[in-house]
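Record pair follows.
FIRST:
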Amino acid sequence: MELFVENFFNLDSLLQVYPLLLQGLQLTLLLAVVALPLSILWGLALAVAYSFHVRILNVALICYIDLVRAFPVVVLLVLIFYGLPLLGLKLGGFTAAVLAIALNNSGYYGEIFRAGIESIPKGQREAGRSLGLRDWQVIALIVLPQALRKALAPFASNSLELVKTTSIAALVALPELLRSARVAQEQTYNPTPLMAAAALYVVLLWPFARWVAVLERRAQMQR
């Protein structure tokens, strides 16, 4: 037991490298704060465009959503960070990571919001049109508010996954939390920094995970 504590919960090692872990935590939060609204807005735009039911547009949107969801986000990051410079466009590591995360998650958010919109009875659209509302007004004033409420549980769940996806930034040498913990481990020759990083993830995401669970239970009760 003493050996286990010495290797995985070594206080001296933690005190030596905690500034590095806090720096990594700050970058992880910054990546999430920037990528999350971009992903949401992008996905919402896809879902709204789909809701107008223009056949050619819908086929293109479905192909886009399937493509970005099929691509592993790590592969997207490699293509963006290492592939785009070959085409004359070089992005910084932070921008590339945000773009990869936003591209990948826009597909998931787009499908979540699309499912919410499609779940609204068509009669409500017809009622809106009978009141003289235009199609975009029907979507914005009648359909979207209801669809967003229905999509809240899967939306929150995907947002939780997005925060964990920020760890891919280590691939382009960004010192996010996981990479910082690995660097700290190399400095201390002890896995305690990795355990500390795991604990920080739990502290950061546990309240969010509980909120997701509550939303999912409410959604099941409403069915």
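SECOND:
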Amino acid sequence: MGGDDIGDAPPTGAGLDPIPRCPDGADPSLATILRLMRHSRQPMFVAWGPDLAFFYNDAYAPILGGRHPGAQGRPFRQVWPEIWDDIWPLIRQALAGQATWSENLHLLMERHGYKEDTWWTFSYSPAHDEAGRVAGMFCSCIETTGQVLAERRLRENEGRFRALLDAAPALMWVTDRTGYCTHLSRSWYAFTGQTPAEGLGTGWLDAVHPDDRSASKVRFLQAVRDRTPLRLDYRLRRADGVWRWAIDAAEPRLGPGGEYLGHVGSVLDITERREAEEHQALLAREVDHRAKNVLAVVQAVLRLTRAPDLPSFARAVEGRVAALARAQTLLSKDRWAGADLRTVVAGELAPFLVEHGGAESRATLRGSPVVVPAAAAQPLTMLVHELATNAMKHGALSVESGRLLVTWRVEDGALHLGWIETGGPAIAAPPARSGFGTRVLDGTARAQLGGSITLDWRPEGLACHITVPLSLPQEEDAAIDWAG
């Protein structure tokens, strides 16, 4: 074999021969190449001479499959006939003295008795003899089939994942591990009017309200840095320029090995829900305020009501509290948005007309539809109740021949309510003193409603005119002062 015998090392694996002995009379350069290949764990081979005799190391043997060990020393073309046409241009280039590099090159191989798709990253380099001539080619290679297929599966999964995101009704987004937004769903672009060039990266923040943008960015970057779940509330600009409240919730996205890949999130328009919650809170405050006001009214009724005996006192108090209860019921049914004036008046008159055997024809209600503010409904109810109570005791509703006309109109932002009684007992003169009912009328119209009231004690019956501004303040009601 000669002095270049390098084949006396033991096998490196079961069933694998060591690299071959250098052929007798071989060029020393070939012996040097084989010696370098021997202990490398990188798959390598050299193709030498006119027939490109194929010599490979132990790390390359598994690549050959059933062709090992018979492939040692055979012509390269006979070792890999099925891929020869694919690699010959690269071999020819190396034999011409030019090194080549191929990355993830696809080759259809039959190394295990069946055709299979494989991918390879390798270099072909010219191999020179002792005289400096190109005598063959040297290859260092690695099979990348698993990596290529894994990346392909990953891309396919990413494609399916993004298709699912695009099909979702929510606005969806995905980032990489640096926080760079790599995908926004079609629903995001449809909602915001942004284009991919505008929205990807950190451009999506441009659609967030300027007052919410800085805090949202800080919390977003913190979640990316800490790789933690994220929840943001902010105003998002719709394509038509309208700002909508949104919840942006995201979770870290992990790879098969648990490695952090970025975040995936969804954005939901919660404007209607937020408005409903704010309205509910407003209603709760309004109910609390009204409840306190009702208690104050009840306390005043109890303190100031006068009657000759206990049953009369009880009836007077019950009537006034019942009027308050009817106002509360009417307002709660309409969610404290206001009350229909006709309903308020008719509701207060009904108990008096029914209780005293009258018919609805005894009272005529005339006026266009008017919704009075919630703050005015309760005081107006008390006004009508006191007028009806007085009419039942002393006026038109105290006799069967009595008649009542209630009219209203809205003029210059104020409600004008008229109360005209006829057919009742003749009135010789106005009352000598003001009773509790009169004080309630005056205090309610002026102090609570900020309006005015006039009482005209005509011989044929009382004529009352009440003016109430409809643009009432929404702060605390005026203090109840019926004592004056």
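COMMENT: Residues 1-18, 355-359, 473-484 have pLDDT under 50 and may be disordered.
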